[in-house]
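Backbone-to-sequence.
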């Protein structure tokens, strides 16, 4: 299982309903959501209609493009790679903003900084400490991969709370959150599904997870 990118986070915490705690601690039973699931979830702290979306900003350096020559980067995608430009058009450090939406993906959400008030806002009443989050993510990834649901890789990193505008080329679409949710300090693990495969939230059981888990009191 390959890790594409990660922050140096040693421990994460998962809020949940107390009725699921026993199965999580003893069986490693948990639900893995999807970006679409969180996009449509009707809860101000959990749902976000802009999940997996961003406005990508890029700058085109000086240059002249003529006779339908392909335009570079985001501007080319915005205007079309083969526009008939006729006599040509010059660009001098032109900024372009391109709205992008990524494909649906599996996502596991936790927090780096446990907070009782945040837990209650999310509608939960229990907190589980997860040691070694990368190992935790790998075990889940191997389970999903064995079920032929995902490619053998994942990305795990902290969310950014700076709105939805980011560098066009930054691979951060799944981790951009509105600033008013900064108190969540979310750590998100994303698994890309096999191309063309329809996905939805799934409950899995990984007993290999249990040594990494412990009940945490807030």
């Amino acid at each position: 299982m390959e890790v594409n990118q990660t922050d140096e986070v040693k421990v994460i915490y998962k809020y949940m309903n107390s009725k699921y705690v026993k199965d999580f601690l003893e069986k490693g039973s948990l639900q893995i959501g999807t970006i679409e699931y969180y996009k449509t979830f009707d809860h101000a702290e959990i749902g976000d209609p802009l999940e997996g979306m961003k406005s990508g900003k890029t700058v085109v350096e000086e240059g002249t493009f003529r006779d339908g020559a392909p335009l570079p980067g985001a501007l080319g995608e915005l205007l079309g790679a083969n526009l008939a430009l006729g006599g040509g058009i010059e660009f001098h450090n032109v900024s372009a903003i391109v709205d992008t939406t990524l494909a649906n993906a599996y996502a596991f959400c936790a927090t780096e900084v446990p907070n009782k008030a945040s837990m209650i806002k999310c509608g939960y009443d229990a907190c589980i400490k997860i040691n070694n989050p990368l190992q935790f993510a790998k075990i889940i990834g191997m389970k999903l991969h064995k079920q032929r649901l995902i490619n053998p890789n994942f990305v795990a990193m902290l969310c950014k709370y700076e709105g939805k505008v980011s560098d066009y080329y930054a691979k951060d679409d799944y981790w951009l959150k509105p600033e008013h949710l900064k108190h969540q300090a979310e750590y998100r693990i994303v698994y890309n599904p096999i191309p063309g495969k329809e996905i939805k939230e799934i409950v899995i059981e990984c007993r290999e997870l249990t040594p990494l888990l412990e009940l945490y009191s807030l």
